[in-house]
Amino acid sequence: MSDGRQGTDWRGSGPGAAASWLIRGASVVGAGPADISVTDGMITAVGPAAEPPPGAQVLDAGGLVALPGLVDLHAHLREPGREDAETVETGTAAAALGGFTAVHAMANTDPVADTAGVVEQIWRLGRRAGRCDVRPIGAVTAGLGGRQLAELGAMADSDARVRVFSDDGRCVSDAVLMRRALEYVKAFDGVIAQHAQEPRLTDGAQVNEGEISAALGLTGWPAVAEEAIIARDCLLAAHVGSALHVCHVSTAGSVEIIRWAKSKGWRVTAEVTPHHLLLTEQLAVGYDPVFKVNPPLRTEADVAALRAGLADGTIDCVATDHAPHPLEDKETEWQVAAFGMTGLETALRVVHAAMVQPGLLDWAGVADRMSQRPAAIGRLDLLGPAQHGSPVAVGFPANLVLYDPDASDRVDPAAQASRSRNTPFAGMTLPGRVIATFLRGEATVLDGKLAR
Amino acid sequence: MKRHLISAADLSREDALLILDTAEELAQVTDRPIRKLPTLRGRTVVNLFYEDSTRTRISFEAAAKRLSADVINFSAKGSSVAKGESLKDTALTLEAMGADAVVIRHSASGAPHRLAGWVRGSVVNAGDGAHEHPTQALLDAFTMRRRLGRLEGLRVTIVGDVLHSRVARSNVLLLHALGADVSLVAPPTLLPVAVGSWPCSVGYDLDAALPKTDVVMMLRVQAERMNAAYFPTVREYSRRYGLDAGRMALLPESAIVMHPGPMNRGVEIAAEVADSARSTIVEQVTNGVSVRMAVLYLLLGGSEAER
């Protein structure tokens, strides 16, 4: 993978400030305390009591966990088109505050990211904002219309070098179209990220179908509508020998199907959102649309199965599905409100609460599920060797998060950097705090605040 | 009692009985030459109707006026939920006008919940989507008690489109709280998948249910369901789940036939059944006014001293 352009292009995303640090006493991915030396954006030493590199700033990280920079496979940055909800600038600020150094921007913008021109625009906006590497996701079908393939090859060949394609928000429900998409992206090692939702089974669907939907009189979104598509797509991916990624897995049955597909050796990966790891359908009872999301919040049994699936690796990674919406799209009757929740700023803390505190994942596991594996699924080695998802070790780029696991506070939507306020965790006390984030040695977040 | 009446589940058994007993007293007003009480003089009741429902709106209007409240009818029909002024802005407007109670009918389940978060007055749910219609359940219970003398142990069979019925949801909750044995009978396509968790029994066979029924309540089949694969044809639905004279004969001698209206004669109920002596359909309308008077009286009347 060396056409001579990607390395320099991507390194150009920061202002190029002197990126040398001595991070003292951090617990490196949960292991014992060590000093991390960063010189010119690279990790140059990890071990006991290092000397500061020349010109380095020294940061006391005693009691903090050092993790590799997080990678989000699934965020809606809303630009172009819905800059009232979020922009690449505000979305990447939120991402940095959440500990992310790379985010994938979903294709359902306006215009849709279905051409080389639009994906390059989003890629350039990300470079200009400079806080995260922004990887555009291309639409699978033109205009998300579900009728004909978008120019996947042109997007792959563009400066944005798109490898993940998704109609997220809509399902590629046509089996032939899905088959062709899976086949076509083999030519450039692409992956189809499917929003698994059988449309006819979910016409007008509002909440998980079950006791809650029955009592509330809201149209049910049955688990089978997700599971049927996942089963079909696993079989299609196996048949054509391509790579399928399943977005926001939300049911226990989906976890079972993915476990089965993986046991066959098929190239199937999956993500789960933070909110599906922590929240249940019970929250819909007050009809507050801040809890309205697609796929919907499910049952406690589903939450338990998702956690177990993430713990055993059946589910590869956590992806936020950060979906900002302006207030007026949520201050309405439930059934006309927009689907979606913000998540970039709380993702690591939610995973801490849902996975680390109950002992289901250690910090090495968190690094794997929130950095290493999503980087691999997103083909982030295209940005240069081991740019993202690499270990906190000598010779790798200094994409790092320093996280205080002993902190905790209540989530205040007004204090968030996202332009939107629709966090379902508002008012909840969550553990932990992101103290600092480094992108190639440059601090994007320091002291829990944006560094610039 | 709670400040709002949004769900039949908001009512304890004692609350429900208090409403029914109060309605019984207020019904006597209806029999007087001057059908008016001064109880709610100076209080404002807004009827906020996002759906056409002349019968329910008039019933609430009559109830409020007989208690001497000022009534404002705010017909928001046409300003559909997807466009026009938002529910929140309408709520703020009503708040600014000083509404003491807002009676809301809305196509979106949960709209009264949302409204209650935005206004200080009492919110009365006059039917929201497929969620609930608590005053309908109260008037149904009132009618049953008047006709049959009790609710405890009464065998009530509710027939038809339970899935989309706010009347069914409210009746199951209320009648269960009042000690009745409720059964639902419908084609499986028109029952919620989790109906097994409801405090009632469920069956698919109307003929088997009728001989063990004191009250049969027929639900309206909405036109938009007729072509959506819930059942093969209207005629098949009518044959299997419609109440005709032959089926009515399976009922015990004293059993009554109810319908929340408006009826599809010839679909869920045959004309000779609707017009028979067992039918309480016209009484239900009369009783609706008394029950709604009781609800408004109990929600608003008690707080006079605080103001």
Give a quick set of tags describing it.
heterodimer; A: 452 residues; alpha/beta; Urease, subunit C, domain 1; TIM Barrel; 9-stranded mixed β-sheet; 5-stranded parallel β-sheet; 19 strands; globular; B: 307 residues; Rossmann fold; 2 domains; 4-stranded parallel β-sheet; 11 helices; 15% strand; disordered C terminus
Shape of chain A: globular
Instruction: Please provide the ordered H/E string of secondary-structure elements of chain B.
Output: HEHEHEHEHEHEEHEHHEHH
Report the sheet-strand fraction of chain A.
Answer: 15-25%
Greatest chain-chain contact: A-B, 21 and 26 residues
- Number of domains as seen in the coordinates of chain A: 2
Helical content of chain B stands at: 25-40%
Q: State the CATH superfamily name of the largest domain in chain B.
A: Aspartate/ornithine carbamoyltransferase
Distance between the first and last residues' Cα of chain A? 33 Å
Let me know the number of strands of chain A.
Answer: 19
**How far is the first residue's CA from the last residue's CA of chain B?**
18 Å
Would you identify the regions of chain A where 5 or more consecutive residues have pLDDT less than 50?
1-16
Any idea of the CATH class of the largest domain in chain B?
Alpha Beta
Which bin fits the share of residues in helices of chain A? 25-40%
Number of helical runs of chain A?
A: 12
How is the secondary structure organized here?
The complex is a heterodimer of chains A (452) and B (307).
Chain A: H1 6-11, E1 21-28, E2 33-39, E3 42-47, E4 57-60, E5 65-68, E6 70-75, H2 88-97, E7 100-105, H3 116-129, E8 133-136, H4 152-157, E9 164-165, H5 175-184, E10 191-194, E11 207-208, H6 211-216, E12 220-221, H7 223-240, E13 244-246, H8 252-263, E14 268-272, H9 274-278, H10 300-312, E15 317-318, H11 347-356, H12 363-377, E16 400-410, E17 429-439, E18 442-446, E19 449-450
Parallel strand pairs in A: 1-4, 1-5, 6-7, 7-8, 9-10, 10-13, 11-12, 13-14, 14-15
Antiparallel strand pairs in A: 1-2, 2-3, 5-16, 16-17, 17-18, 18-19
Chain B: H1 13-30, E1 44-49, H2 54-66, E2 70-75, H3 87-96, E3 101-106, H4 111-116, E4 122-128, H5 134-148, E5 155-159, H6 166-177, E6 181-185, E7 201-203, H7 206-209, E8 215-218, H8 234-241, H9 245-248, E9 256-258, H10 271-274, H11 281-300
Helix pairs in contact in B: 1-5, 1-11, 2-11, 5-6, 5-11
